[in-house]
Amino acid sequence: MADDAPIDQQVYDELIAQGKSERVALAKARAAALRQQRQGAPQGSEADDRAQGGVPAAGGETGGRDAPASGPSPGAEAAPAGQERVRQALATQGAAATGSGGAAAGAGADGPAAPGEPARRRLGLTTPPGIQTIKGKQEDKVYTWPHLISSEFVALLSILAFLLVFSSLVDAPLQELANPTESPNPAKAPWYFLGLQELLLYFHPMVAGVTLPGAIITGLIALPYLDRNPSQRPENRRTALTIYTLFLVFWATLTITGSFFRGPGLNWVWPWVDGIWFNL
């Protein structure tokens, strides 16, 4: 849109006083000035009407398109400002799309007017830049609530139900007070220490009681610094899952062996032959 286009100063001042932006106020003031200029122009000249309506005159300025022979339609002057601006923008785009003919038409329309004709200006709409929406990359993630909390709550209820059923079916009474003069045979540690007690049967107490447990605890502390793989998919964590599975199977084997396959004197027994020497 040309910067030297006439504007309606009164409309411009009213829009600025209403808090409108300068760009909107200028556009509406120029549209009002164009309407006033069109209403005050003489109606006898066909070329003038076409120039004021935004339609190029017939001849070389149309880029090869035939111009209408009749004058402007009566409804063109009464069209709303929005429809008039859209029609002018379409005319501008059509002239630009015709190639060299369109370029000549633009030069003829925006150039100096012929003698005896009023000055003509071509008005066009400029589309404001749209707001670009930047969307983040979708990742495999869940929210703490309700996904994580609901799963943990279901697991809690399941374990609580299992403990209630187990405690109602299994008799686990309190025994008599410990007698310091009489040691039970076999003397077994609680079930969660039976794996460590089983190691004492194969290694020196320093190795089974200090070195191996210390290495396990140190490895757990250093695990976040050694394994820096950010992936949470099992197929991408095969090494870590293999190591954990081997450790779990190893410790479970020691615990089961110490619970069901050790009898008096911690000797090897077959539970289906000699019975089970294990109390909860």
Unreliably modeled segments: 43-79, 98-111
Integer-rounded radius of gyration = 46 Å
Q: How much strand content do the residues show? A: under 5%
Give the overall silhouette: rod-shaped
Characterise this structure.
- It is a single chain.
- This protein is mainly alpha-helical.
- It is built from 11 helices and no strands.
- Among the domains are: 9-110, no CATH class; 184-274, plastocyanin oxidoreductase (Helix Hairpins).
- The protein has helices spanning 9-17, 22-40, 46-53, 74-77, 81-97, 100-110, 144-169, 194-200, 205-226, 238-260, 271-274.
- Helix 1 (9-17) packs antiparallel against helix 2, helix 5 packs across helix 6 (100-110) and helix 8 crosses helix 9.
- The chain is rod-shaped.
- 10% of the residues are buried.
